[in-house]
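Self-study notes.
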Amino acid sequence: MGIVIDTSALVDIERRAGGEDAETTAWNVLFLRIGDQPAAIPAIVFAEALVGVELAANTKRAAVRRAHLDALIAQVPVVDFDAQIAQVWARLVATLRRSGQMIPANDLAVAATATHLAYAVLVGASGEKHFRAIDGLEVITIDG
């Protein structure tokens, strides 16, 4: 099985780091967490991470965020939201609407990508609840 990385995992890594050196160590933990498993970044996660670069408090922070993101995508491919993933997304939306348990649209795109690839989704603590609403989706937290 592989891992799809959610934005909440990336946010948790940055929040826990507490400084540039510690942040680099925290990002290395992400690579260790992935290990030799296949991994993917949904296009929406890449977009959300780019928003974080654009909204950084200063240019130094933006440069650090962008460098970490570039290092990540050098090792982990970005997966487009294509027609096949869109079909999975539509099925998930219909299922969740019927059950009255809708989750945010971007999280649905991540879940659809993971479901299509038959991968687990790697989340931070703040993202876990949303993804647990998806039947059959394995959810892994950044803490392990």
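Second protein, same conventions, sequence then structure:
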Amino acid sequence: MTVADIRPGLVAYLYADAGIYAAVEGGVARANGGERIFPVKLDQGVKKASIVYSRISGVGDHHMQGPSGLARPRIQIDSWAPTANAAEQLADLVKYRIDGFRGSMPYGSNSPQDTIAVQGVFFDSERDDYDEIAKLYRVSRDYLIWFEER
């Protein structure tokens, strides 16, 4: 049995939203998708609206017979943009898309598509920042995501 990873499903779910897609890709269709939703760090030289996601921490769930099959990582999603307002608007698009979500997040190109069963996504905290080197504003929000990893 394999252990599922929420991150590919989360990226696909974010990209499936027309508003998020337009904000990070400028409405331009890309062959591979995902060019401006990055894992862990923003690519050097990026100056346009982008999203960076990273797992801050994670906990498993157990009962007396062993693992329940659920996991709950804390995922930080950073919304980067050239202005503070644009960063806030992108962060709000992400929050509107995922906060409170429960259901299936399809991803991948397999037929049928791979899916992640999500029990719930919950907004937890936020903070603002400005990166002097990149000359970009950032709105950073943490989400607790309960999903079935087994």
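Instructor comment on the second fold: The chain has a mean pLDDT of 89.
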